[in-house]
Design goal:
The protein contains 7 helices and 3 strands; from the N terminus they run ααβββααααα. By secondary structure, the protein is mainly alpha-helical. β2 and β3 form a beta hairpin. The protein is globular.
Length: 148
């Protein structure tokens, strides 16, 4: 089975198991990139784009492919692509966002995503501190758009 057939098969399987994700899959532009180590989602005009490294994808088990796809779709569902930029430490924000969404994915679908309680607690405290120091959206009392 080639990469396109594999992604198609995994997409269909995820939609059958969890139909909610079909909404995101139908609007998702899918592309293969050798310069990306794993996979990721990004904005693509008014839609979203999933970019996957072919070698990485083909190295995953069927369950891990489901987990990867669900993981990336949850980034879209949770609005991470529109809130990511407000954090000054993008690496920390990405880790926190990954931890947030991974709790909604069956552990058997996640390769190497284990955090123990103490690691989670320390990271959560750091993210909260970062959030409190981040400038918030200022609403102007006119007909203008919100100003940041």
């Amino acid at each position: 089975m080639d990469k396109v057939q594999s992604l198609s098969k995994t997409s269909k399987e995820l939609m059958l198991k969890e139909p909610y994700y079909g909404y995101f899959l139908i609007m998702l532009n899918k592309m293969w990139r050798k310069d990306l180590p794993t996979a990721g989602v990004s904005k693509n005009g008014i839609n979203y784009q999933l970019a996957i490294n072919e070698e990485f994808w083909m190295s995953l088990s069927e369950d891990h492919k489901l987990g990867l796809l669900k993981h990336e779709l949850l980034h879209i569902a949770f609005g991470h692509l529109t809130t990511y930029f407000i954090f000054s430490d993008h690496r920390m924000a990405n880790i926190a966002m990954d931890m947030e969404i991974n709790q909604y994915i069956d552990r058997s679908w996640l390769p190497g995503a284990e955090f123990d309680h103490e690691q989670f607690k320390a990271l959560k405290e750091a993210v909260i501190k970062e959030y409190k120091q981040t400038p918030k959206l200022i609403l102007i009392k006119t007909n203008e758009q919100p100003y940041m």
